[in-house]
Design goal:
The chain is α+β, with helices and mostly antiparallel strands. The protein is built from one helix and twelve strands. The protein has one domain (54-189): Immunoglobulin-like (Sandwich). The strands form three sheets. Strands 1, 3, 5, 7, 8, 10 and 11 form a seven-stranded antiparallel sheet that branches. It has a three-stranded antiparallel sheet with strand order 9-6-12, with no helix packed on it. It has a two-stranded antiparallel sheet with strand order 2-4.
Amino acid sequence: MMNRIFLRPQAKLTIFTLIELLASASLHQQKARAAGNTASANANAYAHMLIPIAITKVDDLNFGETYSGDSLLTISANSTESGSGTNVRKAAEFSLTGEGGHSFQFQLSGSSINMTTGDGSGGTKQIVVNNFTALPAFSSGVTGTTTFSGTSGTSGSKTIYIGGDRAAPVASQVTGTYVSANFTMTVTYN
């Protein structure tokens, strides 16, 4: 036969209270252990705004005087000015400023341009300029990379020179002054 245990109502309340106390103590111990195994730290966010790049054209690429039947003429990027009057020959020069010590990419707008006279129509009123070179040198095509002088947080500078080849004028080349559409130097921080 089965023995039955009868608890008085006060004993039932005491057992349930005891179970609740033990469960609560166990939960607090788990939280205390977890709190003992955590840590925290604060961080800030920072940014340094670079000095804006500025570029100024100092000189145009100038091939000086030529004549019908003349040969191809190369103006190298590291050439010094030569000639006088309308026969000055020199590389294009660009003066740049920006954040000291930072590298940047420079790029020409294309690999060739046409110099034209008059209405520019037909081969006798056009002379091609191509095979551009740069100082500092292009690393790929008409794109190069270099660094501003100075250190970060100060203004730096750089001068870039551009040379190129002027095609040989044809025998019936029209006389006059030949001028190209702009070729553009674009500069961007790396």
